[in-house]
C-alpha cells in the first residue's frame, strides 16, 4: 500500500493506492492521471529515496518509511507571457 498526497501538505488530500508488485513509475503516473486528472507529463512525484525514471519498478526499498509520495503539477506558462521568457 502506498499513500499519495496530492496538492501539497497544507491543502492536499491523501489517498491510498494498492500497487501490484510489478508497477512502474509510468504505470503509477497513469493511475494518478485517471484518479486526479493531471497528465503524466505534468506530474511531479516526490518522496522516493533515490531519483527514479518512468521505467523504474516501484519497490519497498525505493519508498520512504511512511510509504507516502507527494504529487504536484508543473505550473504552465500563460500564453501572454510566453514570449517574455
Kindly, what is the distance between the CA atoms of the first and last residues, rounded to a whole number of angstroms? 42 Å
| Average pLDDT rating | 83
Class in CATH? Alpha Beta
- The low-confidence runs, each spanning 5 or more residues with pLDDT under 50, are 77-85
Name of the CATH homologous superfamily:
Phosphatidylinositol 3-kinase Catalytic Subunit, Chain A, domain 1
- Give the H and E element order: EEHEE
CA-based shape: globular
What characterizes the major β-sheet? Answer: 4 strands, mixed
CATH fold-level name? Ubiquitin-like (UB roll)
Number of strands: 4
InterPro entries: Ubiquitin-like_domsf
Summarize the SSE layout with pairings.
Elements: E1 2-6, E2 13-17, H1 25-36, E3 43-46, E4 68-73
Parallel strand pairs: 1-4
Antiparallel strand pairs: 1-2, 3-4
Task: Give an overview in words.
With 85 residues, the protein is of the alpha+beta class. The protein has a single domain, classed as Ubiquitin-like (UB roll), CATH 3.10.20.90. It is 14% helix and 24% strand. The protein has 1 helix and 4 strands. Strands 2-1-4-3 form a 4-stranded mixed beta sheet, with no helix packed on it. The radius of gyration is 14 Å and the shape is globular. It starts with a strand and ends in a 12-residue tail after the last strand. The C terminus is likely disordered.
Amino acid at each position: 500500500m502506498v499513500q499519495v498526497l496530492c496538492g501539497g501538505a497544507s491543502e492536499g488530500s491523501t489517498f491510498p493506492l494498492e500497487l501490484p508488485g510489478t508497477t512502474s513509475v509510468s504505470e503509477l503516473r497513469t493511475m494518478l492521471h485517471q484518479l486526479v486528472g493531471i497528465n503524466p507529463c505534468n506530474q511531479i512525484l516526490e518522496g522516493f529515496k533515490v531519483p527514479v525514471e518512468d521505467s523504474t519498478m516501484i519497490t519497498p526499498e525505493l519508498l520512504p518509511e511512511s510509504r507516502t509520495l507527494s504529487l504536484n503539477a508543473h505550473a504552465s506558462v500563460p500564453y501572454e507571457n510566453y514570449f517574455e521568457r
